[in-house]
Amino acid sequence: MARKEAPQTDSTKGGANEILGISLLALAGLFLLALYSFDRGDLSFNGTEVNNPLHNHAGTFGAWLAQGCFMALGMAAYLLPPLMLIFSLAFLFSRLGGLRRRWPWALALLLAVSAGLSLYPNLFSGPVQQLNTVDPGGYVGLLLHKGIFIHVGTAGATVILLAVYLLSLLYLTNFKLKDWVKVAWQRWRLRRIDRSKPLANEEIELTKQEEDLAQ
User: Fold this and answer.
1) What is the DSSP secondary structure assignment for residue 148, as one 8-state letter?
2) What is the pTM of this model?
3) Residues 23-46 as b or e (16 or more Cβ within 10 Å = b)
4) How confident is the model over 44-63, as a mean pLDDT?
5) What is the DSSP string of 6-45?
6) Where are the transmembrane segments (predicted)?
7) Residue 101: what pLDDT?
8) What angle do CA 122, 159, 167 make, to 5 degrees?
9) Which is nearest to 148 in space by CA: 110, 171, 114?
10) Cα distance between residue 65 and residue 52, in whole Å
């Protein structure tokens, strides 16, 4: 008779989450050093004389890592360290555990930013040359632009991508847009009430009760 495996305990799961959290935190630090200290002169691949000493704080490995990220994602690669940091905190702190299931929205944000940058290549010609990449959004942004967004035009693509940005940020931050609008509307209505008039307090109370019933 086959022996059943012991169920995974909370301590085991907690240990795995800590390992993942610390690993992501270390990766975030490495990517931060590599990307923000990138200099194309650190690599002979770029057809320039190699810097001596290297400018990249993560050494030759960091220079190649950054170059690969910029080639793939363009300027959108700068989002990688903060996104890694956010998810590392989600694994380290149980109160942020809900973020772990929202990684698809982080990916959607990254792809949307990459595609958005590719819509306006003339605005970012300087960074493109400095980062030695093919497009402001890298190969990913260029492919998304040429394969999908070119069919809806620059204005149409901008509207679509802005919607994706908003949705991604809403789900990543768990921001309650509906609740925020309700609160803002209630505050606006309360400001319009002239408190010097008779029955002003009663009107304020009725406004608050209406908002409570609407919820």
Assistant:
1) T
2) 0.75
3) ebbebbebbbbbbebbbbbbbeee
4) 87
5) PPPPHHHHHHHHHHHHHHHHHHHHHHHHHHHT--GGG-GG
6) 20-38, 64-93, 105-128, 148-172
7) 87
8) 115
9) 114
10) 19
Distance, C-alpha 184 to centroid of its chain: 26
- CA dist., res. 25 & res. 102, Å (int): 18
Is 193's pLDDT higher than 70?
no
Q: Are 52 and 77 in contact (CB under 8 A)?
A: no
Q: Poorest-confidence range of 12-16, 39-43, 69-73, 174-178?
A: 174-178
Q: Which of 137, 12, 132 is nearest to 66 (CA)?
A: 132
**76/114 Cα distance (integer angstroms):** 5
- Cα(149)–Cα(121) distance, integer angstroms: 14
Instruction: For 69-99, write each residue's pLDDT tens digit.
Output: 999 999 999 999 999 999 999 999 888 788 8
Contact (Cβ atoms closer than 8 angstroms) between residue 73 and residue 137: yes
C-alpha atoms less than 13 angstroms from C-alpha of 145 in its C-beta half-sphere? 21
8 Å CB contact between 24 and 96: no
Domain ranges of the chain: 10-175, 177-215
pLDDT of res. 117:
96
Is it the case that residue 199 has pLDDT exceeding 50? Answer: no
